[in-house]
Every structure is written in C-alpha cells, then in structure tokens.
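lol ok so funny story. i was supposed to be doing the assay writeup but got distracted and ended up predicting the structure for this chain instead. priorities right. anyway since i did it might as well share w the group, maybe its usefull for someone
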Amino acid sequence: MKRETKQLLRKAIDSLVLSVEVFNRPHDRGRVTTTLILLDHAFEMLLKSAIRHKGGRIHEPRAENTIGFDACVRVALSNGQIKFLSEDQALLLQSINSLRDAAQHYILELSEGQLYMQAQAGLTLFRDLLQTVFGKKLQVALPERVLPLATRPPTDLEALFTAEVDEIRKLLKPGSRRQSDAIARLRPLAILDSAIRGEKGQIGPADLKRAKERLLKDRDWKAVFPGVSSIQMTATGTGPSLDLRLVKKEGAPVQLVPEGTPGAAVVAIKRVNELDFYSLGLKQLAKHVSLTEPRALAVVRHLGLQSDSDCFKALSLGRQEHKRYSQHAITKIKAALPGLDLDQVWREHGPKRR
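and the output, tada:
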C-alpha cells in the first residue's frame, strides 16, 4: 500500500474512533454536530484512500485541492475501473454528508434514534468497505468495545419515524410557540428524504414550510416523505459485532439523471464520464472473458449487449467513432458463458452472419 493511501486510511480510522467517542459522551453539548462532522470526515478520508488504492486520482488536472466528498462518492459509485460502492451504500453516505452540512452550517435537531441509526450504520459501512477494498478487518485497528452505545436502540425504522413525526406535530400545535423547534426537528427528515430521492443540497425555508403544512393536513407521513418511507433497516449480530445497514425497499425507484444536473445528488448519477464508464475496447473485453476477439464479438451480438446502454456505447472522439464496453458487459458475458454453445453462437453471429 502506498504511503499516501496509508496516511489517508489512518486519518479515516482516527476520525471514526473520535466520532464514536463523541457519540458515547455522557453529556450532550455539541454531541450531534461533532459526531456528524467526524463521521463525515472519516468517510471522506476512507473514500480518497480507497480511490488511490485502486489506482484512481483524487486531484483534478491543475487543481490545487483534492476532490470533494460528492466527487469521491461519484467516482466510487460509477467509475467502472474503481467502483466499490453500491447504490444503498452511496445513499447512506449522501445522508450523512447532508446532515453534517446542515448541522455544521445552520440548525439541526436530530433525535437520539436517528443519530444512533446514522452512527451505527456508518460504522457498519466503514467496516464493510475496509474489508472489501483493503482486505482488512476493522477489529484489527479498533478495540472491540468501540461501538456506538444506545440504551434504547431503534429496531424498526417506521416506528422511529412515526414517533418523530408525532413529536413534530405536537410542537406545531396552535399556541405551542415552538415553531422554530419543530422546524429544527423537521429539517433532518426532509434532508434524509431529499438525499434518498436523488436531490442534492440543503432544504430551504419554503420547502420546510410546505412539508410542515402537509404534515398538519395529511396524517400519513409517508406521503410527505416518500423517500424516507422507501428505506428499511437490517440488523445482524449483537454487541461489538452488530451490523446495521440501511437499504432501499425492493422496487423503490432510484432517480437517474445526467451528471451536472443542478441539484442532483451523486447517488443518482451512474457515470463519471463516458470514457471512464465505457472503459473497454473489444480486445480488452475479449481478454477479460478469455475469448478471441471474433468470438467475443459473436457473444456480444448473441446477448444483444450493443443494445444495452449499461454495457455498450459508440463514442465519437473527433471524427472517429469508438465502440466501447463497460464492466457490466464482462459480468453479463461471464454469467452467460456456461450455458452457451459457442460453436452455435459462432455459426449464428460470426462475421458472415451479422
């Protein structure tokens, strides 16, 4: 492992440990904000370390500073040669980053259940990425006792958010004079919902006002926050080995938009740029699937991969057109090969049978 990668990884682990330490403080002064800032910093350092470890760049050409959090997630999610994040993992990173942004720059009141959910799911994700990218176990770097502790950890997300909305409605009752407190508690729900639905940025006063009015009129909070209602929590193990992950429910839509769309969250973006995503020529593709170039092309035609935008695109560079394939093409060919009669595929889709 290169020295820069080691240094970034060490910083990531340091910030993770400190975030858990602050979470477990016996007092609340600055606890929510500091936990989110340290957890967010831990992941930014981990993402940069992982990108460098996989041979990627964290400096844009002629740029003085390294790429930011959003760009790191985008590379880790959609760069075919570097990719190590799933969409569910990117959703959690996006929510942690957005909550940190609100806590650091404005006012955010996060319930104990929500803070525990973010901290424990964050620790699990950190553990997962450390294992998959670096082949390291978190227990080697941390004492087993390092774990966010809660006297009443949430076991059901729907119950958690229902209780949170009930508290917000109490604060919004006429005559309570606690509108500002209600807005502070409403903001993290709106941020989480926005991040999950593929929208980037902080929630403005007008958006919060609309959400507040809808909560007062509509008893079903899921209609107000459809993104929040689309996630579920899975927990395995107990004590120091507890794993908690947030995943989108099966069938919940993920918004896909082009890179550069104003207000688009990085989790909604599938490609860093076309050449990074479609990173393989036919020769490279054939090598990865252990076929000759002509036979690989015959398999491509048989599977219809050139009609699949996730696998193939003809890119125009200057006056030349280049036929390029993504990592998805490798996956699909390898999955199909055991069931293919290659001689029959060749007879049907070889050079003379286009």
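Residues 95 and 192 are 5 Å apart (CA to CA). The chain is about 55% helix and 5% strand.
back to the writeup now i swear
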